[in-house]
What we know:
Layout: E1 2-5, E2 14-17, E3 28-36, H1 39-46, E4 65-73, E5 85-88, E6 91-92, H2 98-101, E7 112-113, E8 127-130, H3 133-136, E9 138-139, H4 146-151, H5 155-166, E10 173-177, H6 181-192, E11 196-201, H7 204-212, E12 217-220, H8 226-234, E13 238-243, H9 248-256, E14 258-266, H10 282-288, E15 291-294, H11 303-311, E16 321-326, H12 330-338, E17 345-350
Parallel strand pairs: 10-11, 10-13, 11-12, 13-14, 14-15, 16-17
Antiparallel strand pairs: 1-2, 3-4, 3-8, 3-17, 4-5, 5-9, 6-7
Helix pairs in contact: 5-6
One zinc ion binds next to loops.
Amino acid sequence: xxxxxxxxxxxxxxxxxxxxxxxxxxxxxxxxxxxxxxxxxxxxxxxxxxxxxxxxxxxxxxxxxxxxxxxxxxxxxxxxxxxxxxxxxxxxxxxxxxxxxxxxxxxxxxxxxxxxxxxxxxxxxxxxxxxxxxxxxxxxxxxxxxxxxxxxxxxxxxxxxxxxxxxxxxxxxxxxxxxxxxxxxxxxxxxxxxxxxxxxxxxxxxxxxxxxxxxxxxxxxxxxxxxxxxxxxxxxxxxxxxxxxxxxxxxxxxxxxxxxxxxxxxxxxxxxxxxxxxxxxxxxxxxxxxxxxxxxxxxxxxxxxxxxxxxxxxxxxxxxxxxxxxxxxxxxxxxxxxxxxxxxxxxxxxx
Length: 351
Ligand SMILES: NC(=O)c1ccc[n+]([C@@H]2O[C@H](COP(=O)([O-])OP(=O)(O)OC[C@H]3O[C@@H](n4cnc5c(N)ncnc54)[C@H](O)[C@@H]3O)[C@@H](O)[C@H]2O)c1
Ligand SMILES: [Zn+2]
Ligand SMILES: [Zn+2]
C-alpha cells in the first residue's frame, strides 16, 4: 500500500510502498477514504511531547483523523464486517481499565494513538489497523459521509468535548483562542449550543470564517490586547474560554480574559518553546474562583449525541474543510502549518 512515512523529525515525509497490514484477532483493517492533517501530527513531526511521554519510534505513519470503510476483520470481531463505514477516535482504548469502565476511555490508562504511539501506524496511508475494534470503532449513520467522519476522528470531536467541558448555560460568553481546526469547530459547536462566542486569531480571514460559523464577535490578537477586548465585549470577562492552539500567549490570554468563576479549558498542547510548562497567575485563580480544565479527545459514549446533531444537520464539520489534498501534498501542508497558513481542516482524500 501507499503511505506517507515519517522517517526523521522535521524532514519531509517519504511517500513509500509498505506491505498491506493484516488485522490481529481483535482488530480490523480500514480502507482509508479521508484523513485530516491535524496540528498534533505536525507536533509529532517536530518531535514535540517527549515531556508527556509521547515519543514514538521512527519510522511511523502519522494520521489520526480517519474516515474509512472496513476492509478486513479479525477473527474475534463481532460488531463489524467488510463494507461498514466508520470513524474512530484518535485514542484507541483498552475497554477494561478503571477509566474505560467509568465511560472515560479518552483517558484510558492503556491508550494508544495512531501515529503517536510506537508501532501504531496512522491514516496517511491506503489502509490502517484499528486495535480492539469492537470497542473503538464508531459506526456512521447513513447520512454522515467519510469526510465528516475524518473530522470527528480528532479535531471536531475534541472541540465538542471541550465545549462540554466548558459547561455553563445558554447565553453565556465563550471565548475561543485560535480559530484553526479545533477552534473553528469549537466556535460552530458552542454557537449551535446557544453560547455567545468570541473568536480570537491573528488572521482576519479565519476570523471572518468564525463569524460565518456563528461567532458574535471577533478579536484580532495582532491588533488588539485580547483580555481587554474580551472584557469590554462581555462587560467583565468570558464565562468560559477554550484554548485551541497551545502556546504561552494564547493560554495566558485565555486565562486573563475570564470573568469571576470562569473556566479555562486547555485543548491546545504546547510546543518546544513551552515544553509543557506555562506560568499561570495562580492567585487570580484563587481570588476569582476560576477553574483550569484539561480536555482530551472525546469519550466514546459521547459520540451518540455528536452524531445525532450531525445527522440532523445541526452540526456540520464539513463546512470547515478548506482543502482536499493528495498524500504527496502532506509535506506542503506541514510547511503551511509552521506558518499558520492553513484554514480549518486540510484532508487527504487522494491516496
Ligand atoms: N486536547 C486534544 O485532545 C487535542 C486534539 C486535537 C488537537 N489538539 C491540539 O490543539 C492545537 C490546535 O490544533 P489545530 O489542528 O486546530 O491547529 P491549527 O493550526 O488548525 O489552528 C491554530 C490556530 O491558531 C491561530 N493562531 C496562531 N497564533 C495565534 C495567536 N497568537 N493568537 C490567536 N490565534 C493564533 C492560527 O492562525 C490558527 O488558526 C494543537 O496544539 C493540537 O496539537 C489537542
Ligand atoms: Zn482503558
Ligand atoms: Zn488531532
